[in-house]
Amino acid sequence: MGDRNAPGAIQVVTTPDYEVMVIGAHPDDDDFAASATSALWAKQGKKVVWVIMTDGTEGGEVPSTPDAEFMLLREQEQRMAAEMIGVQAVEFLRFPDGHLVNSEATRKAVVRLIRKYRPRVVITHDPTQLFFAPDPNEEPNATGYLNNPDHRATGNIVVDALFPSIGNPRAYRELLAEGLLPYRVHELYLFGTREVNTYIDVTETIELKGQALKCHASQFDSDSDISVRVRERSADVAKEAKKKQGLDMQYAEAFRRIKLHIPPEPKEEAPTEVK
Ligand SMILES: [Zn+2]
């Protein structure tokens, strides 16, 4: 843009504060997709924030439970899980579960949070994944499944917030008064994707992932084998990492990684001349 040095121009911030923001549609999505990676990075001293887009009130089987009660229960479970993982902050946006849409209100809410935390990496749902379905000719006994519309909506909201609004000084100008300056996210990681290009070795933190998922007691029976299932799934992902990229991992989480901003290399000092 030509008016970058004009009076009143605002520079886009490119220095992150948090390492990563994970944005999931429902309480437990961040846990399923990226809790072992979150735990690993948190152990390395990096700052992690989790965002949950909806109130989670459709994640149950009992229609008579009041929404407000169920929402608070699920948020409490999510907080316990996040604490287990070492997440520093959790934000609940409380949009109605099952009805999430890519709208002015939802995009603005995400712009506000990303400008507030300035994560280097944003992790969210792959919005392009309509369904996951094996070819019945190849796997006649396997069923496919349809991706939850809230997952796709979350992915779309985040992608549309990332560009152009988050880094645009003229977008959502009312946020400037809250001190929320335009910012540039460095990398986007997508989960729930068929286009994986990045595997994270989470052998060190897979145990925590199982424990975090167990905190979501409203979603899994107390005698559920959720931590066993999580290990099996992560072990399968690790096998895929070996097959596709020759990587040796016991447990892995998988993402499609997209670089959006590469910070300039710090300038090296000119070598002193030797005579
Ligand atoms: Zn979900």
Brief description of this entry?
By secondary structure, the protein is α/β, with parallel strands linked by helices. It has helices at 29-43, 67-85, 104-117, 149-162, 206-214, 226-245; strands spanning 18-24, 48-54, 89-95, 119-125, 131-132, 145-146, 187-191, 198-201, 252-259.
Structure description:
This protein is of the alpha/beta class and 275 residues long. The chain has a single domain, classed as Rossmann fold (3-Layer(aba) Sandwich), CATH 3.40.50. It has six helices and nine strands; from the N terminus they run βαβαβαβββαββααβ. It has helices at residues 29-43, 67-85, 104-117, 149-162, 206-214, 226-245, and strands at 18-24, 48-54, 89-95, 119-125, 131-132, 145-146, 187-191, 198-201, 252-259. It has a seven-stranded mixed beta sheet, with helices on both faces. The protein has a two-stranded antiparallel ribbon with strand order 5-6. Strand 1 (18-24), helix 1 and strand 2 (48-54) form a beta-alpha-beta unit. Helix 3 packs across helix 4 (149-162) and helix 5 (206-214) packs antiparallel against helix 6. The protein is globular, with a radius of gyration of 20 Å. Bound molecules: zinc ion. Zinc ion binds next to loops. This is PIG-L family deacetylase. One of its GO terms (molecular function) is hydrolase activity, acting on carbon-nitrogen (but not peptide) bonds, in linear amides. InterPro entries: GlcNAc_PI_deacetylase-related (IPR003737), LmbE-like_dom_sf (IPR024078). It holds the Pfam family PIG-L.
